[in-house]
Amino acid sequence: MIKKEISSRILTVAPHYIKTLGGISQVVSVYSNMYEEFNVVASTRDGSLIDRFIQTISGLYTFFRFILSKNIKIVHIHGATKGSFWRKAIFIYLSKIFNKKVIYHIHGANYKTFFYKHPKTITKVIQKCDLIICLSESWKSFFEEVTHPKRCIVLNNIIPLPTLFPDHHIPQKECNFLFLGRLGKRKGVYDLLEVLRDHKTYYKGRIKLFLGGDGEIEQVQKCIKEYGLEEIVKYIGWITGEKKIELLNKSDVYILPSYSEGLPISILEAMSYKLPIISTNVGGIPEVVFNDQNGYLITPGDQPALKICIDKVLISETLRKKMGENSYTLSQKHFPYEIEQKLTTIYTELLKK
């Protein structure tokens, strides 16, 4: 627990972690339990354009109320690309006007593409911050090279402690594969469906793929029907809470063949539930998933390689168990007590300056 003498001086700015889906909200939700006093401003939420606008205005009001009435010294801002960046830029500039230290905690998968559309503006905003937090060494190198921040560090994404059932991963007739994330091309869901379509006779009765998430739901469901995959693939919606825990316990393999990523919370959570991982060599993923150790990485869009990896874990329960144990070991550095200690050090050092 981050003690009150420190946490009372920290203001977090992030999407509403109850009314917003996605990785940042999951991170902030776990963070909220680590502070003796958690001061937070919700900058946006899911919903209509009007809902999001009202939340931003409400967030600005709450921000000023904290800044003017409390002994806030550090503003810890969680942000990503596109609208998230522009909203957070407002909070960054306002924080500096009130002479506060600013931590900009960068999430999101498409930052390179976004940066090269607005290089001067993004560089200017980032250089206003006292500390940039990245999710992986690869992203740290990128931001240091192109924006030259005052200081840039890596802080591992945080995940809650797993709730492992005594009977988790008991072998079934079918091998349960799990995909969680926004359904669409970026996460590689269509590549996955096409591989299953092209080999459905072989996979029928051997694999059950559970697809969880929002995004292009109708298009994905249309593909499942047109490809004749109803007996292999099941769409289960956006999964949270107890249902998510149950699903992670009964799954055998986690699969996320993305085209771009930061460092997906879903992969880290799956690792903590002792799942082997099949994913791609993008973003920070190669820093947590290692070929032949706790999973397999392919080049995005390489469907033949994706099939080979699926087959390797499908045919060997022993391999899945070995990789799953390695995943669990590697995931431990993302558990709350590890991140809490590092955050405490980060805050303490900034408060001394």
UniProtKB/TrEMBL annotation:
Pfam families: Glycos_transf_1 (PF00534). InterPro entries: Glyco_trans_1. One of its GO terms (molecular function) is glycosyltransferase activity. Residues 165-328 form the Glycosyl transferase family domain. Keywords: Glycosyltransferase, Transferase. Belongs to the glycosyltransferase group 1 family. Glycosyltransferase 4 subfamily. This is Glycosyl transferase family 1 domain-containing protein. It comes from Bacteroides salyersiae CL02T12C01.
